[in-house]
Amino acid sequence: MTAHTTFATTTRGLRRDAPAMRLFEKAKRFGIWNPSEIDFRQDREDWLRLSPLEQEVLLHLTALFQAGEEAVTGDILPLMLVMSREGRIEEEMYLTTFLFEEAKHTDFFRRFLDEVVGNRSDLSRYSSPSYRALVYEALPAAMNRLLDDPSPAAQVRASVTYNMIVEGVLAETGYHAYLTALERNGLMPGQCRGIRLLKQDESRHIAYGVYLISRLIAEDDALWDVAEATMNELLGPALGVVGDLFASYPVMPFGLEEGVFADFAIDQFQKRLARIERTRGATLEEVYRATERALEQDAI
Ligand code: MN3
Ligand code: FE
Predict the structure, then answer these.
(1) Is the Cβ–Cβ distance between 140 and 75 less than 8 Å?
(2) Ligand 1 centroid vs 204 CA: distance in angstroms?
């Protein structure tokens, strides 16, 4: 690291209209909920009344969420370092909230496991081959590569893997289905409340990813091929995680249906891919405005 020669905030100031600053503002308002304050008393009572199969499926899903949240908490740092080294103070500031939120998600699920489930067993038995390929291998590989190779192509690969696949397909689909299942059955109000807050945080994370990938492609259109290739390579394993889960249980409780998971995942994925594709050939200002419209539309 060389010496500082200048500071953004004492020369050009902060770009408050930049997408990262808009997201930072939203994170300061909506991302400050405290997992320690979620009331799990009713959730514990509900848990004790579940059948063994219902408990098993809920524990399975929670184990996937728990490991996933720890993975994204641990693996975001190389991207923050890249933004810091590029002097993108707005993006680095936003990413501090991103990391804080992932840490809170990790905290949140561990509280649920400790206080509602009361389970201290090794939950890595729930990590299926597709899950391992994605969360144990592809995610840290794409993120840690940035330490040696901070090129735009490596950044696109990292963000597609992290924001579009792990967050956008796996986490978002998982939370959507899990929340629907609990709400439909009138179960676990504390867990439902936490998941709704956590989903809101995730929407900002994914919006940042869409912005970052769009910005990089606006600067070099050849990166579209990198984005598309990474998505196509990892969508299979991501859907495989859903397939592995459903294959573990001949009868799924809570009215969970594989088709609903898979359709939601593919739908979200295609919506974002289309959003990124629409900004091909755009100027940076146009990418900013497109991000702003998306933030309004998604109400996050
Ligand atoms: Mn998270
Ligand atoms: Fe996230």
Answers:
(1) yes
(2) 10
134 pLDDT higher than 70: yes
Domain of 212: which CATH number? 1.10.620.20
Band of residue 300 on the pLDDT scale cut at 50, 70, 90: low
pLDDT at residue 1 tops 70: no
- Ligand closest to Cα of 205 equals 2
What is d(CA 170, CA 163) in angstroms, rounded to the nearest whole number? 10
- The DSSP 8-state label assigned to residue 114 in this structure reads I
pLDDT band at 299 (very low <50, low <70, confident <90, very high): low
How many domains does the structure of the chain reveal?
A: 1
pLDDT score of 294 more than 70:
yes
Domain assignment present for 8:
no
Cβ proximity of 163 and 127 under 8 Å: no
Residue 157 lies in a domain: yes
Measured in Å, residue 198 CA sits from the centre of ligand 1 at 7
Cα 124 to middle of ligand 1, angstroms: 19
On whether residue 3 sits in a domain, the answer given is no
Residue 106 falls within a domain, yes or no? yes
Q: Domain span at residue 271?
A: 15-25+38-297
* Protein residues near ligand 2, an ion, with CB under 5 A: 167, 202, 205
Tokens 């490991």 map to which residue?
Answer: 67
